[in-house]
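Running co-folding for WQD.
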Amino acid sequence: MKVLVTGGAGYIGSHTVVELLESGYEVVIVDNFSNSDSSVLDKISMITDKEFIFYEGDVCDKKFLEEIFTNENIDSVIHFAGYKAVGESVEKPLMYYQNNIGSTLNLLEVMEKFGVYNLVFSSSATVYGKPHTLPIKEDFPLSATNPYGYTKLMIEQILKDLSKSNDKWNIVLLRYFNPIGAHESGLIGENPKDIPNNIMPYIMRVATGEYEMVHVFGDDYDTEDGTGVRDYIHVVDLAKGHIKAIDYLNSNGGLGIFNLGTGNGYSVMELIKMTEKVNNVKVPYVVEGRRPGDIASCYADPSLANEKLGWRAEKDIEDMCRDAYRFASKKQ
Ligand code: WQD
């Protein structure tokens, strides 16, 4: 079974490629290294000792995509490639709509042309906007508060309409909560090219002395300690969820939508303290004002994925903090 992974050199993509290879799948990676590094490919080989095929290029380039589908007999596609920085999407909406929506439309048209109808799409809990209650279920109302979130929402709508239009399509939408952590080898992990928007890579750069302190965006939320609460999920658990989604595609037609979260919420302060505890490091911080657009709390009801995908997150917050730090301190 040959799986095309777009964005396969990225954070979640590379961890998913490792799991695919170790589960016996053949893998074709496409990446343009806009938010990843070519060294990740060597690390995947070191971890798995397996072969894979790699094409450097942009999913927005239709000719490039057609060349891949001509050369390779693709059975399924996992589509990660896309920009994902909330703040940047507010500053550069056209870049986000062009890239995230345009690349997806390109991919779908080429898949249809080559008769490939199995797709797993990397969606996000961001499509729930500000939930009216918790935990969040898949049938909750959807909304967005920034162009990045709207691209996820719009792509979900495109895929729902496509699924309705032709029952040949087998599509799974995976709504990620907050992926953190790294492969136990410490060889791959989250390493944004610029200053991290997300909390965990920022905490890691403070823990390793690269940055001076964590800027905690608000401690006046309606949560236990006043700081934001999120459903952090180990990236390896998330990657394994994609293997289950591919299996699901091959035994169920139509459209599946699943939350990939642990169902547990942790605050920013709890994440900082846990990082210090499991790694015996200091993580200085300063509390500042809220970040515009942030919500107080967000965590999943993962029961549908547990039941229908036979998937459940296994790693706990200590594993996530320990594994994240091992990667961060190795890459120094
Ligand atoms: C988590 C908590 C912040 C940074 C976003 C996207 C989501 C997905 C994951 C792509 C919040 C606080 C953060 C910092 C802080 N991205 N924080 N200081 O906003 O829940 O989700 O990233 O798929 O789609 O929306 O994640 O890590 O940015 O924030 O205090 O320097 O950490 O206020 O409470 P978020 P995050």
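Result summary
The mean pLDDT is 97.
The chain is about 40% helix and 20% strand.
Job closed.
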